[in-house]
Amino acid sequence: MRLNWFHAVMLLALLSCGKPAAPSGLRVGLITPGSIADAAWNSGAYAGLQQIHDSLGLAISHVEARTPAEQDEALRTYAAQRYSLVFAHGFEFQNAAERVSAEYPNTVFIVTSGARAHGNVSPLIFKLEDASYLAGMVAGGLTRSNILGFVGGIELPPIKSAYEGWVNGATAVNPKVQSREIYLNSFDDAAAGREAALALIRVGADMFHHNADAAALGLFQAAKESRGVYVFGANADQSALAPALVPGSAVIDLPRAFLLVANEVKAGSFTPKVESFGLGSGVVRYDVNPALDTLVPAALKARVKAAADSIAAGTLVPAARPASMQARIRKSPTRPSHRSGNGVRSGVRQKFAEPEVPTT
């Protein structure tokens, strides 16, 4: 029954974008693995999709696809409908996007936090660990218990990397810090997020970070129910969720990144590549909550600023990326040129590096 429901939603999404088609005929689709009401990863992607419509006048569509089967079907349906650009929002979409793209070479597939560029599939790499490191520094300086908590959705490589950045930042200013982490195996279960946070609070955690999307809403609720507990936001500025309890957030400016890609596709100048965004790009950043700015001592602020400058300059690496996070350009057979008008540069034979070369 769930798959039938998904097919119905997918059909409605594609038939009713809600916006008139752009004169150029380009259409942009977004597939998220969870709810766009999560105030984090998925809501940021949807804001990016809306900005593409508002800034470029392109027709847009969105569908939620949680399971691998649904994700494969959503990718295939958008491509079959001749969408020019499809954002597959998450590391977990990589393999499905490659399978579908082989059959639909005229659609540009963008996998956020993807693993490699292959054919007409390109990853957008967000080094959230850069910003999480700075959040960790603040947490390490503010903690009274010396115990930090982290709530994750599923232990995917990008999430683990951000967690490592958080811990490394905390221990850089406070070697006594210990960290506790819980993964929920869900990005949607806010009740489980609340229970996980309360369990960590019971063992002394007073500073929290997360990467759990909608499930993290339960973490914020747990913090509101407890005394002396603070939460650092993830993927978006989440200070509005608990203004008195969020010193800052590790932010990915997804609208800015999405618009950069869509501009190239619309201009016909897009070529498959690995696009990486760190602290120096402005797409990834640490946003301070002005309401709690006085909570952070001046000396700690200075250390955080110095670390941010070093990260942006490339002289400080917040967390080592595992092999699975080293986005690559994969060799692929050269394809003949395809018709113009789909956003991929026409008349250019795409070339791919040999051998695979990691891109940081």
The CA-CA distance between the termini, in Å, is 42 Å
The proportion of residues forming helix, as a percent range, comes to: 25-40%
Strand order of the largest sheet: 2-1-3-4-6-13
The general outline is: globular
Radius of gyration of CA atoms, rounded to a whole number: 21 Å
What are the low-pLDDT stretches, counting only 5+ consecutive residues below 50? 1-24, 330-360
Overall pLDDT confidence: 87
User: Helix-strand pattern, N to C?
Assistant: HEHEHEHEEEHEHEHEHEEEHEEHEE
Count of individual helical segments: 10
Strands, count: 16
By secondary-structure content and strand pairing, the structural class works out as alpha/beta
How is the biggest beta sheet arranged? 6 strands, parallel
Q: Report the sheet-strand fraction.
A: 15-25%
Structure commentary:
With 360 residues, the protein is of the alpha/beta class. It is built from ten helices and 16 strands. The strands form four sheets. A six-stranded parallel β-sheet has the order 2-1-3-4-6-13, with helices on both faces. A four-stranded parallel β-sheet has the order 8-7-9-10, with helices on both faces. Helix 6 links the parallel strand 7 and strand 8. The N terminus and C terminus are likely disordered.
List the helices and strands and how they pair.
Elements: H1 2-15, E1 27-32, H2 41-56, E2 59-64, H3 68-80, E3 85-88, H4 94-101, E4 108-112, E5 116-117, E6 121-126, H5 128-142, E7 147-152, H6 157-173, E8 178-183, H7 190-202, E9 207-211, H8 217-224, E10 230-231, E11 233-235, E12 248-252, H9 254-267, E13 275-277, E14 284-288, H10 298-313, E15 327-329, E16 358-359
Parallel strand pairs: 1-2, 1-3, 3-4, 4-6, 5-15, 6-13, 7-8, 7-9, 9-10, 11-12
Antiparallel strand pairs: 12-14, 15-16
Helix pairs in contact: 1-3, 2-9, 3-4, 5-6, 5-10, 7-8
